[in-house]
Design brief:
It is built from seven helices and 13 strands. By secondary structure, the protein is of the alpha/beta class. The protein has a single domain, classed as Spore Coat Polysaccharide Biosynthesis Protein SpsA, Chain A (Alpha-Beta Complex), CATH 3.90.550.10. Strands 1, 4, 5, 6, 8, 9, 10, 11 and 12 form a nine-stranded mixed sheet that branches. The longest helix has 17 residues.
Amino acid sequence: MSTIDTAIILAAGRGSRLKERTLEKPKPMTKINNIPIIDNLIEELINQKIKNIIIVIGYMAEKFKKHLKRFEDRTNLIFITNPDFDKTNNIYSLWLAKKHLRQGFFLFEADIFCEENLINELVSSRHHNIIVVDKFTKEMDGTVVELTEDNIVKEMYLKRHQGKGFSYYQKYKTVNFYKFGSYYVQNHLIPKMKEHIKRQDVNVYYEQIIKEDIDEGYQFYALQTGSNLWWEIDTPGDLKKTKEIFEISE
């Protein structure tokens, strides 16, 4: 079992691609099989004995807080508000949580619906720095990586690097679940985030820093999802796909 007992959940954005579903509530409160996405993730983290759960919120922050109060007697739930959620990207949301990062942490984006065993494998892994990945399929979108035979990430391709003619052969999609050890956080992640924030570069993704470190030779272990079910929910099509994956009837 990991000695890291802190999880950061990034949940500040509006999720406008879900259209009318986010007009009255934040995207992570969208329900799958009558369970809000965020509730599913928090329940799984509590079951894995994660003591500190820090949630960075922004869009409809007060509604989010009110909804999640039900978990306050079961874990140390801390809210951090990104007041500029509509003008910044997730690197800034993560930066706002910097005082909670130094001893290492798990990082989750709040729009992933998954089985608990995937969280269990991440939390229980002996590796210090982990990127959770799945074999790329045409229905996926976002950052992809290439792996060595030992499941070390040897190359990361952000969305902007996937232009015309880009080959997805032997590529893996990042699930947006991570583990970062204290050494990496203190000597790489925080200093590089500080550089970006100092020059007002707040509209990039935190993956930019991870890519820079991979390019410089820093090693991240790729934990493959295997048979564990998951899906990222950005669009109405993703909602439909999630129901298909989890065999949820309408």
